[in-house]
Amino acid sequence: MAVLIFFCCIFNSILYRIQRYVYGRRIDEVEIEHPPIFIIGHWRSGTTFLHELMARDSQFAFPTTYECFVPHHFMLTRGLMTRFGGWLLPRKRPMDNMAAAWDRPQEDEFALCAQGVGSPYLRMAFPNDEPDGMEFLDMRDVAADDLAEWKAAMLNFARAVTLNRPKRLMLKSPPHTGRIEVLSELFPGAMFVHISRNPYSIFPSTQRLWRALDRVQGLQLPKHANLDEYIFTCLERMYGGYEAQREKIDPSQLVEVAYEQLVADPLGELRRIYDHLGLEGFAEAKSGFEEHLDDQKDYQTNRHDLDPNLKSEIHARWAGYFERYGYEP
Question: Is pTM, for the whole model, over 0.85?
Answer without folding.
Answer: yes
